[in-house]
Each structure stands twice: as structure tokens, then as C-alpha cells.
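Ticket #4471: structure output looks truncated?

Reporter: J.K.
Steps to reproduce: submitted the chain below (216 residues) through the standard prediction queue, then opened the result file.
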Amino acid sequence: MTVTITAFEASPDRGRGLARDMRVRWTLEEVGQPYEVRLVSFRTMKEPAHLALQPFGQIPTYEDGDLALFESGAIVLQIAERHPGLLPADANGRARAITWMFAAMSTVEPPIVEREMASYVERDKDWFEARRPILEERIRTRLDQLSRRLGDADWLDGDFSAGDLLMVTVLRRLESSGLLDGTPNLPAYIARGQGRPAYQRAFAAQLAVFEAASKR
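Returned output as attached by the reporter:
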């Protein structure tokens, strides 16, 4: 059976490839697996059928036969473990790549998302301008640490892996923020990820959804 994932019918990122289905699309493209996409509206995401797949009413979800998953990181790991290309063959290298997956999702992404959410929901609050530098300093600390670890290498640990795939999608959320300016090896790292043919196919597929929605 062909894998089916869910994605926004009208993504709030306006086709920038930041919605989390992008991570899953890119992963499937990297391993050469065909997939179908079921587009969902914000209303549909709160209905029982979708909540049975994703209890928090979000995207993406992943269905492969009798297996249904949610959470983009878990889906990427499932695909990477089932198909060659995104995890090293040796056990230690595999473990390190998975560690970088967790680092992207659990260490680097949270302060980035916290800054985004503050900009959305706290901008009109008295404390916002005082809090913003604190949020941004937390991000810069993580970026400095990541930059030092990456150094002049192309990827985080040897060849491109699922760890790099997730890290690039996380860092892309900062592209228009100016926060990457102090760590020039990270924009170059992002660009290498974006230059991969599988990334470009995934991005084009997600952008096509936005363009179709904008014409309706």
C-alpha cells in the first residue's frame, strides 16, 4: 500500500516549506518512496476522524497499511529505519544520527518555537519588548554551540542523515530573523540541505498546494 500523509489544505506558512509535513515529504523523497497526501482544513483537523490519527489536532500524520503515526520526528525515524539512505549501517553511527534527530527536535527547536509563539500571542503585551532579547539570546546560545560542533564539515556526523534533515528544517525557521548572521557556517549548512534534489522535490510539492489554494 502507498503511504498517506496529511498536510494543511491552506498552510499558514504561505508555501515557504516550514509546515512540518515538509519534513516527512523530504524524508520520503530521500528514500525514494511514493506517497499520497490528504489535505485537511483547520476544521477537519478538530474532527473525530483526524483526532483518531492525531490526538492533538495537528499535522502531519502518517498511514502505512495498519500503522498510523503522528509527530513529524517519529514519522521521519520510522521511514529512515525502514528504508536505506538516512541512517548509517553501523550501529554506532546509527545511534549518533538518531541522537542528532532528538537534538534538533528537543534542544534546538524549542527556543525557536517559543520566540515565534511570543511574537504571535504576546506582541501587544507590556512585557514583550523586554522578553524578546531573552528569547533571542537563548537561540543564539544554541546556534553558537551547534556552529562550533559543525565547524567546517558538510554534515553533523559523516554523511547526510536524518539528523541533518531535521536540523535543517528546524534552522530554516530562522532564515528571516537575522539570528543566523553570527554563525555563517549554519546558513551554508542550510543551503546544502536545500540543494539536495529530494528537498527541492518536496518543497515544490508543498508549494504547489499553496499555489492551488491561493487560486481558489
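Triage note (M.O.): checked the attachment and the full C-alpha cell line is present. The longest helix spans residues 91-121.
Status: closed, working as intended.
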